TrEMBL record:
It comes from the Bacteria. InterPro entries: UbiA_prenyltransferase (IPR000537), UbiA_sf (IPR044878). Coiled coil: none annotated. GO terms for cellular component: membrane. This is 1,4-dihydroxy-2-naphthoate prenyltransferase. It holds the Pfam family UbiA. Keywords: Membrane, Transferase, Transmembrane, Transmembrane helix. It comes from Leifsonia shinshuensis. It is a multi-pass membrane protein. Its main location: membrane.
Length: 278
């Protein structure tokens, strides 16, 4: 059994939390954030993601225990549920306080993004609209970065669209390996209603469109590095589709979406100020 601090960390969904934080840092670097402001952005996003992750394990503990989820410390009893719940609320409060240093626009955008994650955990995951919180929260992530600049600006429309598409893809891909367990506990989100194959194809379709948008959305001459990113991103899509058609979905699908997301954020960083509306 891991120590209580380690178990609490594992209950925060550290993988997705780290990926989203890295995405935010990449956006900040691309926008030319000074080091101090970049640290504030990273800390704000990290705290927001910790809050969402801990609230998920707290609210899902009974369901996770019912299906013997070995990867959920709260369900296993490795960390007190009360501690996970308290950590979620503390991280939420700290996330909003830290984001306030980036300005009111960034604060509002981040508050809505976090609210989307909590809404999913509180029940939207069991509805046909389960994709909406992911689309909203991922779509707003670039807005937190652009509005958090010393001279705030809204992201360009194509950036919102690309972020939302990546969010839908992340949602579907993350849910696919858990369809059977979710069915046993009454969870019926959009992927459960569509079925495995259709959901997988939806995820990778969204991913492909997002990658193309990031490559050509700025309307500028395409740089060679963006072409490289496009090739890598579409290769990840092809690999995901092949994997989906040849075998049952696995966590590898989530790893592919994370890989492509990191490629996409690198491309967004290369886009720099062009991600902000003119």
């Amino acid at each position: 059994m891991a120590s209580k601090p380690i178990s609490l960390l594992l209950a925060s969904h550290p993988g997705p939390t780290a990926v989203v934080t890295v995405v935010a840092v990449g956006l900040g670097i691309g926008l030319g954030y000074p080091p101090g402001r970049l640290v504030v952005l990273a800390l704000a996003i990290l705290l927001g993601q910790l809050s969402i992750g801990w609230s998920n394990d707290w609210l899902d503990a009974a369901r996770d225990r019912e299906v013997d989820r070995a990867d959920k410390p709260a369900a296993r009893g490795d960390v007190p549920l009360a501690l996970v719940r308290a950590s979620a609320f503390v991280a939420l409060a700290l996330a909003l306080i830290v984001t306030a240093f980036l300005g009111i626009g960034a604060l509002i955008a981040h508050a809505v993004a976090i609210a989307g994650g909590w809404a999913y955990n509180l029940g939207l995951k069991s509805t046909a609209a389960s994709f909406v919180p992911f689309a909203v929260s991922f779509g707003l992530l670039p807005a937190i970065a652009t509005l958090g600049q010393e001279h705030p600006a809204w992201p360009a429309p194509w950036v919102f669209a690309a972020g939302a598409l990546l969010g839908v893809a992340a949602h579907v891909t993350n849910v696919l390996p858990d369809l059977a367990d979710d069915a046993r506990t009454g969870i019926r989100g959009l992927p459960h209603r569509l079925g495995t194959r259709a959901s997988g194809l939806l995820a990778f379709g969204c991913l492909a469109v997002a990658t193309v948008l990031i490559t050509f959305g700025p309307g500028l001459p395409v740089r060679p590095l963006l072409v490289v990113g496009l090739v890598i991103g579409l290769a990840a899509v092809v690999a995901g589709v092949v994997l989906l058609l040849r075998r049952s979905p696995t966590r590898l699908l989530m790893q592919l979406i994370m890989t492509c997301a990191l490629v996409d954020v690198a491309m967004l960083a290369l886009a720099g100020q062009s991600i902000a509306a003119g």
